[in-house]
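I would love for you to help me understand the pair of lines that follows before we discuss the fold together.
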Amino acid sequence: MDYNCELTQKEAQPVLSIRSRSVVQAMPELMGRCFGSVAKYLGELGEAPAGMPFAAFYNMDMNDLDVEIGFPVGRALPGRGEVQPSEIPGGWQATLFFTGRYDAMTPAYQALTEFVKASGHEPTGVAYEMYLNDPSGLSPEQAQTLIMFPLKS
């Protein structure tokens, strides 16, 4: 499959998120819980998400994923309990738009990794997934995800 990889530059984006560890099989349940907790806290603050939900993967160990799950927000907000402020870093990024099942993303990740190497850049080691639609009302093949690798300066 051909993937359209791009280099983009963006400003840092404040977020509210929960950082956790999980096996890959438990990710759907963890994501649902985290998105719900962050959304509830945003509502209590009288705020709304400033973009689509995301997950940041700090490693790719499917038996012990280090993951941050949350929403972008319009401005830095205080945290409470497990919901904490963070940010999606600004600067150069390699991106790829993917449509399909979440468990079928491996070739897309490989294509983006090869693109980064070929472009002479180096990734920071964190991979972001921005979930562009709600898969609960769609077939898994219709899920749309923006995969993003922040790049070292």
